Amino acid sequence: MMQLIRLNQTEHIDQSLVISKQALALAVKMGDSLHMVQFKRANGFIYRKLDSLSASIRELNEALLIAQRNNFDVELVKILNTLAIAYSLNGNHDKALDCHFKALTVNEKLGNIEELSITYNNIGFVYFKLEDYERALDYYKRSLDAKKAISSNYDLDRLLINMALCYNQLKQYKEAENHINQAIEICKSGCSSAVQIEAQFSLGVSLAEQNRAEEAIDHFQKSLQLAQTFGEKRFQIESLLNLSLVKEKENLKDEAINYLKQAEEIANGTNYTLSLIKVYKVFSKIYKDNKDFINSSKYQDMYIQLKDSIYSNELIQNLAKVQANFAERDNLKTIQEKNLSLELKQALIDKQNSQYFFIIAIAILVLLLAIVSLLATHRQQKASHEISKAKFVIEEKNQQLATQNKELDKRVRERTSDLLKSTLMLTQVNKELDNFLYKSSHDIRGPLMTFQGLCNLGLMETNDQVVRNILEKLLSHSDKMAKILGRLTTVGKINEAKITPEVIGFKDILDEIIKAKEKSSREKGVQVTYEIDSDDGKTITDRFLLEIVLENLIDNGIKFYNNSVRINPYVKVNVIQLALQTIIKVEDNGIGIVDVPSDTMFHMFMRASERSETSGVGLYLAKVCTDKLGGEIKMEKSTKDGTIFTVVLPSDVSSIIAKRKELEADLLRLEQEAMEDAKKMKTTV
After folding, report:
1. Global pTM?
2. Distance (Å, rounded) from C-alpha 581 to C-alpha 579?
3. What is the pLDDT of residues 7-29, one digit of tens each?
């Protein structure tokens, strides 16, 4: 039955779908899980060939669940690869990449080099769609190496065509043409319809990029005719789009628009949203060049709306998450290298400090020498008979002093230059540490999520109470670690964030935070209230950083509440907006803070109580955000044995931003002056 389906997939694809559905119904009736998976996968493949991507994704996901439940690993790989291609064509690149990486894991487990090469090729296809051509080419090369390792020619022609498309985008046209010729040589007269279409299309792209318009049009026309013959709508759209681009370059706007309209009409009846995005973009450009601003604006809006629906923030975050799950980092070695770098920088600073003390001592000695010289000159002037001798001595001393002054000035400038370099190096190191902290948090999150998944799987699979207790404890501790990683990620975001001044409405912010903490405060019986002297927009600061400060201080008060039955726990927020500063007080009647120095209390990982669940990152975040906003934060005990945190912020953060820019400009000016002085010294020498 499966062989019959394959025979009809090329020319009688509708009949192939009917046969596959009948075979699936028979497999369901017999309860044959393996054939159910195979025929559902066949349905998904056929629906994709028919440009019905939604139906394809539905069938393949159903097949995936059955394969996973029955541990059909071989079928699982094939389903994941087919499903990923459907996701890519539908614009769901994050899901596509996730499927491919899962297939990669299963293939490595099975040791199946052939399927491994297919997965590498498919991953390259996803990155090509994301326009990351370097990475796409890297995975295509891995696929080619895998095929060479087992001397396999399966789909080698398609792989070479894919590599040619990458080389075209990287402007390596000779390489592109070589790979196309190799692909045609492999299949010769027996090339599949897909290879014929893609070969003509790739040659068209290469020639178009080299401004060989007539030859490019010829190949695009051939690609279009083949795509129409074999019902390949995606390449009908792409061929028409590229014909339009060539005509637009030749300033044949009407012909270009005609091709675009044909492409749009075909694309509107399919799920090829990425191709439709390109069509809208070219439409907008051509209409703009023709001064038809109404149509240009219309297609520009359609382009932006469709692009935003595909390349959303969620897609980008999911892509980063999927890639992070498979990234390998030697964290311990990196940390050690960073620590060693810091130790070397500290040693350099200590050495420079010693040199500065030496310079100061020389300056004092020179000053003393100048005073002695003046006294000697004064005495020699009183004795007329020693005037000539005194004059000679004074000139000699002055010459020595001038020489020493020049040497001293040279050393001072050299040390100033070294200090500036050290300052810039330390700034770079701090940035690298912040970046490392942020990336490390992301890298650890992947294995942690895997660990949590395994714990949940264990809880689902076992009824042994002892084992369940252990797994629940492990899951609880991993949740705490996930919270810590989230806080550490926030540290990186704060350090990279640019301050955006805006008028602050404290009532809206506090209402949002109290609502977010409502469950936690209600469980612990903590009443959270606030009082604002006026909320007329007196405070101008960065809302994101301010929210972090308020959220962590309120969360701290809820977390360390007093659980005595005689106490009614509360957290009170008081906001006072003055002319030049805004004062925020967060008071609680909790368990209080042990005798810890105020400056130490805001250090990272400082824990004032065993009740802390996030290893003391919350107060550190509040301190970092307050400093970045140009304010200060302090802690004191309240009269009711609780804690009062006081945050003082400038009423308008714009002045702080201006001062920091002036300081950066001064540092840059000093560095340039030091470099110019160094050049002059070299020229003099």
Report:
1. 0.40
2. 6
3. 445 456 777 788 888 888 888 88
